[in-house]
Amino acid sequence: MERTLEDWIAEVKADLGIDLDVDVRGLLDLARVVAHGVARPAAPLTAFLIGYAAAQQGGGPAAVAEASRRTAALAERWAPTDDGPGDA
Q1: What pLDDT is stored for residue 86 in this prediction?
Q2: What phi and psi values does residue 85 have, to the nearest 5 degrees?
Q3: In Å, how far from its chain's centre is CA 13?
Q4: Which pTM value belongs to this model?
Q5: Cα separations (Å) of 49 from 27, 52, 62, 71, 82?
Q6: End-to-end alpha-carbon separation of the chain, Å?
């Protein structure tokens, strides 16, 4: 039996007692932006911080979405520009 990313997410959620629809595509897109615009190791750490921030705001999909939105905007500001060095 081939296991998928969706299977993994479902199993982790069950094991941790999490009842939350996860926007897998959105979180992976955010991780890509962070990994390329900031640094690769920042991607998983950022995902953790988004979860923590969402929990502090009461949790739920809306809190995760808002923390993700804000973090994506910040990561895009960190991303290097195509203008070259010193053109910021």
Answers
A1: 43
A2: -65, 140
A3: 16
A4: 0.78
A5: 12, 5, 15, 10, 28
A6: 51
List b or e across 25-57, with b for residues whose CB sees 16 or more CB atoms inside 10 angstroms. eebeebbebbbebbeeebbeebbeebbebbeee
Tokens (6 digits) for 71:
């973090």
Q: Which residue has the tokens 């520009």?
A: 81
Tokens of 40: 């690769």
What count of other Cβ atoms lies within 10 Å of the Cβ of residue 15? 8
Q: Which two tokens stand for residue 44?
A: 């998983």
Give the separation between CA 60 and CA 18, rounded to whole angstroms: 10
Nearest to 24 by CA among 56, 1, 47: 47
* Amino acid at the residue 81: T
CB-CB contact of 88 with 50 (8 Å): no
Regions in the chain scoring below 70 on pLDDT:
81-88
